[in-house]
Amino acid sequence: MRIETRYNGPTGSGNGGWSAGIFAAGADGSGPVEVTLRRPPPLDTELTLVDGEVRDPAGELVAEVRPAGVIDAVVPSVDLETAVAAAARYPGLVEHPFPSCYVCGPQRADGLRIFPGRLPDGRTAAPFRAPAQVSAATVWAALDCPGGWAVLAPGRPYLLGRIAAEVATLPEPGDECVVTGALLRVDGRKALVHTSLYGPDGSLLGAARATWIAR
Asked: Average pLDDT in the 102-130 region?
């Protein structure tokens, strides 16, 4: 397995959702998978997955992968117009801890450009146009940052620590989708969030629960 440079999150490391999706795809079995990131995923490095552990060439532990059980983390959808209006209020357009992030970085013209803005009830929402090439890792990536932006605040960045996701269906290239996120609770430096991705017809494409860690 290899996380290509273009799929970065923070500078110099892989986007958490994309990386977790790659690791999940390398696991045996079927059903929902949970990935715990033990350190920032290195870029352009051959990684191996053995007995649920992702390691780099030096043998250092990068992530742990295990079955997740039922993902009961569905966040209600909104219509595309509401998602577009929320994205116009995306705080990352003004201040972003990782502006070159493949998923939500405003500096990335070649990224997914998912810009989650707050709804009046505290959820986040954003439109998402599926790229020309779509894989399960694309859905994992789309399910990543919208949850983080439900807790991110100016001056207090968070990083993905653990994510469990279930991908029901892949969107078709060019599909106009909607992704929503919600903060469940904050416990010290840890924040538990849920995210959901919906297709153009309103069908649920994927859902995730995740733990984010304040830096």
From this structure: 97
